[in-house]
Design a protein that fits this description.
Blueprint (H helix, E strand, L loop, with lengths): L21 H10 L14 E2 L11 H8 L9 H13 L4 E5 L2 H12 L5 E4 L4 H9 L3 E4 L20 H11 L6 E4 L12 H13 L4 E4 L3 H11 L8 H10 L3 E5 L10 E5 L2 H14 L10 H13 L3 H21 L11 E5 H4 L9 H13 L1 E2 L1 E3 L1 H4 L14 E5 L7 H17 L6 E5 L10 E4 L1
Parallel strand pairs: 1-10, 3-4, 5-6, 6-7
Antiparallel strand pairs: 2-8, 7-8, 9-12, 11-12, 13-14
This protein binds ligand F0G.
The site of ligand F0G has 16 residues, from helix 4 and helix 5.
Length: 455
């Protein structure tokens, strides 16, 4: 058996990267007010801002695109898409949306509202944004290990079951549903055990609450279950996936992640009445129920992508890439979230740059330096993203991380080595990095558009 885990694909079509110099990048990041979201993609060498919609489609997906049927109602592309979803996630109603947050907006138009409290292991930022925009509150109840970057717990995305039980007892009628995000993106791309998913489902049921899974990275989560959970080693990925969703009452999905789409999403529900309310909302805001926010060709690409994402050779290579980077960063002394996450590598900027206090955003300082040194674009997941409180005050987030999100099937081994070289250089100069101050921010989800100046 060969030890090297290779990319299990060849490259048929390439996109050139425009090379830039360090001097150019220093000027460009200033022009972007030190916000990596504000940079032009053409000015980025390796774009690790997100793994969302940035993956490479396969030849089979591009072929499927040609089959797209753009009928307004009853398109065969919808039925192929619906069947591909139901093959893995056995929900009764599959409601296509243009991306995950559209599914969230519809869900919280039903479950949200002033006074409502919605628990999750950790709400992703758009989930929290949609909850708060409805007047409700999002609550993060991940296990303690989930916010300890050094903990080697195999399922750091697990829900803290005693805390969830207390939460449900305490808040009773104020809780419209229980959510669970797999993998736990905001907590480091960490997986949730099948056993934990089942236990959360049971608790939700005992309290009469619908259980909704945010399934963006379901295949990566299933791979971790297969590797790490006792008794799961000999099971197929599709079987594990089906088990995860069989205990839920619905799901939201960003098909820009584990469906290999450049766009797409869905909301799935079992309850007929809720589905009718959701579809009515869909028609008003997204589109007719057999296309939602999508073109027929997008639904075809997703149907094919869903068959490819559960391939074990792909998942082995996918997860190994992150492990490789984490192992080498660890050897360099860079504090990283361990074990490696499914879709991303997370740097613990708060401890690496401990001369920068959390309210001067060490994560953002690191993201700026990575861009200046190597043209690598990353995103802060920390006090900028989560620090602003509903009452207007600001406090440090649980962690200050920088996320190196890996687009699917897009970069190669030499890109990974280049990223590691950037960290070698950063290790030399990290003490000279400066914190930042926010000079302008919007009311919600400030990290996307806020402007900074260097302190
Ligand atoms: N839920 C999770 C866990 C996510 O990671 C995302 C998106 C969404 C919901 C929203 O989906 O983008 O299709 O509207 N995460 C991307 C990221 C943007 O970079 O992590 P969307």
């Amino acid at each position: 058996m060969m030890k090297t885990i290779i990319e299990p694909f060849r490259i048929k079509s390439v996109e050139p990267i425009r090379m830039t110099t360090r001097a150019e990048r220093e000027a460009l990041i200033r022009k972007a007010n030190f916000n990596t979201f504000t940079l032009d993609a053409d000015d980025v060498l390796i774009d690790l801002l997100t793994d969302s919609g940035t993956g490479a489609m396969s030849a089979a997906q591009w072929s499927a695109v040609m089959r797209g049927d753009e009928s307004y109602a009853g398109s065969p592309s919808y039925y192929r898409f619906r069947d591909a979803v139901q093959n893995l996630m056995p929900f009764k109603h599959i409601i296509p949306t243009h991306q995950g947050r559209a599914a969230e907006a519809i869900l919280f138009s039903i479950f949200g509202g002033v006074g409502k409290k919605i628990p999750n292991n950790t709400h992703f930022d758009t989930t929290r944004g949609n909850i708060e925009a409805s007047g409700a509150e999002g609550h993060d109840l991940v296990i303690g290990e989930g916010t300890d970057p050094a903990s080697l717990h195999p399922f750091k995305g697990n829900m803290d079951l005693p805390r969830l039980a207390r939460f449900l007892e305490e808040h009773g009628d104020a809780v419209p549903c229980v959510m669970m995000t797999i993998t736990n993106n905001a907590g480091g791309g960490q997986p949730v055990a099948l056993e934990n998913i089942r236990a959360v489902a049971e608790l939700a049921r005992a309290f009469g609450k619908p259980f909704i899974i945010d399934g963006c990275r379901f295949a990566e989560n299933a791979w971790f279950i297969k590797q790490r959970e006792p008794g799961q080693q000999d099971r197929s990925i599709p079987d594990i996936v089906r088990d995860c969703f069989a205990v839920a009452d619905g799901m939201t999905m960003s098909a820009k992640k584990d469906a290999f789409g450049n766009i797409g999403g869905w909301l799935a529900l079992n309850d007929d009445d809720l589905a009718e309310v959701a579809r009515t909302h869909l028609i008003r805001t997204e589109g007719f129920p057999t296309y939602g926010g999508l073109a027929g060709r997008d639904m075809e690409a997703l149907a094919q992508g869903l068959t490819e994402i559960v391939d074990e050779d792909y998942l082995r290579y996918r997860i190994r890439t992150n492990e490789y980077i984490v192992e080498r960063l660890d050897a360099l002394g860079v504090p990283v979230v361990k074990p490696a996450g499914g879709h991303a590598v997370f740097i613990d900027a708060r401890s690496w740059l401990d001369h920068i206090p959390p309210l001067e955003y060490p994560g953002q300082a690191l993201a700026v330096a990575l861009y200046e040194i190597a043209g690598i674009r990353t995103a802060e997941i920390g006090t900028v993203m989560f620090g602003r409180q509903p009452d207007g005050s600001e406090k440090p987030a649980a962690m200050d991380l920088v996320r190196l999100a890996m687009p699917r099937r897009t970069y190669t081994q030499s890109h990974a080595d280049y990223i590691l070289e950037a960290f070698e250089e950063l290790a030399e100069i990290r003490r000279s990095l400066k914190g930042l101050r926010i000079t302008h921010e919007p009311k919600l989800m400030r990290h996307f558009t806020c402007r900074y100046e260097q302190l």
